[in-house]
Amino acid sequence: MQSVVVTLEKISTLVRICSEESWAAGFLRLSQEFADAPQATKDKIVSLYGGMGSFNDLVLYRDGKLLLSENNELDQLRSELFQLCRRT
To answer: CA 88 to CA 68: how far, in whole Å?
Structure first.
């Protein structure tokens, strides 16, 4: 499932550009873990979508300004990643 890794790397790059270093590092780490433990990594990814402060709550800003196109791209990638991880 190379597409999971590609999507994780795209998300990592996007959120890093928007100064979300913690999220960027986490997604990069997950992309590296995927090769050794794909199912466990997918489970970790799906768990990021629930609860307060979750991946679903992430909104990208720069200098206090909402980044509309970046947030639209993030929403698309977020949905794509979730669907990829939920498939068996």
So the answer is: 33
Output the CA–CA distances (angstroms, integers) from residue 54 to 4, 35, 37, in the order listed: 19, 24, 22
What is the residue range of 55's domain?
2-86
Number of domains in the chain: 1
**The CA-based dihedral angle spanning residues 56, 60, 61, 62, taken in that order and rounded to the nearest 10 degrees:** 150
* Span 2-44, pLDDT tens digits: 799 999 999 999 999 999 999 999 999 999 999 999 999 999 9
List strand residue ranges (DSSP E) for the chain, in order.
Answer: 61-62, 65-66
Per the CB < 8 A criterion, the answer to whether 44 and 26 are in contact is no
With 70 as the cut, is the pLDDT of residue 88 above it?
no
